Predict the 3D structure of the following.
Amino acid sequence: MKISQPTEKPIVAGNKPSAANAKSAPAASLQARSAAAEGTRSAGVAVTVSALARTLDANNAGEAPDVDLGKVQTVRAAIADGTYVVNPGVIADKLLANAQEMLQRQTSI
């Protein structure tokens, strides 16, 4: 499983609202969402989803859960029993591969 930073969404740093401007925060948030939606609309790219794609999505919506609950229970039981084994070599390999991929993306930009 790869965990990476989405590149299409900007990261906005801001200050925590003080007690004085806490009441205006919802209005500012609404304005920010409106501006973001407006920027998205003005991209000029029209996307359409075919009827077949909608049908396939509707048919498969309830079939596969997002999380394999059986696997979660197995891992929980192994952790509780003290039999869960972590392979540090695999973790290190994946960390290095992820770092290398991120560095390659930065150099290609």
